[in-house]
Specification:
Layout lengths: L1 H19 L2 E12 L6 H11 L9 E6 L12 E11 L5 E2 L3
Parallel strand pairs: 1-2
Antiparallel strand pairs: 1-3, 3-4
Helix pairs in contact: 1-2
């Protein structure tokens, strides 16, 4: 169940970022999730695919990484950090979000 909740957060972050940059479709994303212990990154990515059907995220390759642990590079507990997003703008030219 935690994976579905995390997937909602990932999907929301991806769609917000896509909207900010005028992307019609997300091609790929790499995200860091700071959630409960035992979270399966593979299951989160799977649920992003399921929940993203019919959205600009449909078909995107999503890589999910668990947060390394406490530290300055770790997002706050229960949050998602979008590390990289690639997509296709409305004019069909590929976009790479700078890191």
């Amino acid at each position: 169940m935690h994976e579905i909740s995390a997937a909602h957060g990932v999907l929301e972050a991806m769609m917000e970022e896509a909207g900010r940059h005028g992307l019609s479709r997300v091609v790929s994303a790499r995200v860091t999730v700071n959630a409960v212990d035992g979270l399966s990154p593979e299951n989160v990515a799977y649920w992003v695919g399921v929940l993203g059907e019919g959205t600009c995220v449909q078909g995107a390759v999503v890589e999910v990484y668990p947060a390394a642990g406490p530290g300055e590079d770790c997002p706050p507990p229960g949050t998602v950090r979008l590390d990289e997003l690639r997509g296709v703008p409305r004019d069909d030219v590929e976009y790479d979000r700078p890191r």
